[in-house]
Amino acid sequence: MKSKALKENKDFRRLYYRGKSEASSSLVTYVMKNRYGETRVGITTGKKIGGAVERNRARRVIRASFSEFENNLSGKYDIVFVARTKTTQVKMQTVRAEMEMQLKKLGVLK
Question: How many CA atoms lie within 13 A of 72 on its CB side?
Fold first, then answer.
């Protein structure tokens, strides 16, 4: 089951204000149930993270990590992952482990 991309600014803002969140040193996750019948995922990497190369690596690592959990979601959600400065400096396994822990705490994983 492939998730759709979350693109609209209003959707990101709705998640920031109304969604549940969990944070760690290299990743922040916002989650909210949706009524669209499909999971939508957005990834945010701000300029504080570094240049384009670092931001793209952060997005790639987050996307690859999420693809491992995509089929184990317990429902249809809007999810936003916010990369932090440390995201570019840690190994992918660290990001994956933090993401798994956050998704479990938020009740998204089965």
Answer: 11
Residue whose structure tokens are 């956050």: 102
Q: How far is CA 78 from CA 7, 8, 12, 107, in A?
A: 11, 12, 9, 13
Contact 40, 70 (CB under 8 A): no
As a whole number of angstroms, the distance between CA 96 and CA 109 comes to 13
Which runs of consecutive H residues, i.e. helices, occur in 19-107?
52-69, 92-105
pTM of the model: 0.94
User: What does residue 90 show for φ and ψ, rounded to 5 degrees?
Assistant: -100, 165
- Rounded to the nearest 10 degrees, what angle do helices 52-69 and 92-105 cross at? 50
Which residue is it, tokens 């109304």? 18
Calculate Rg over the CA atoms of the chain.
Answer: 13
pLDDT digits 0-9 by tens, 14-55: 999 999 999 999 999 999 999 988 999 999 999 999 999 999
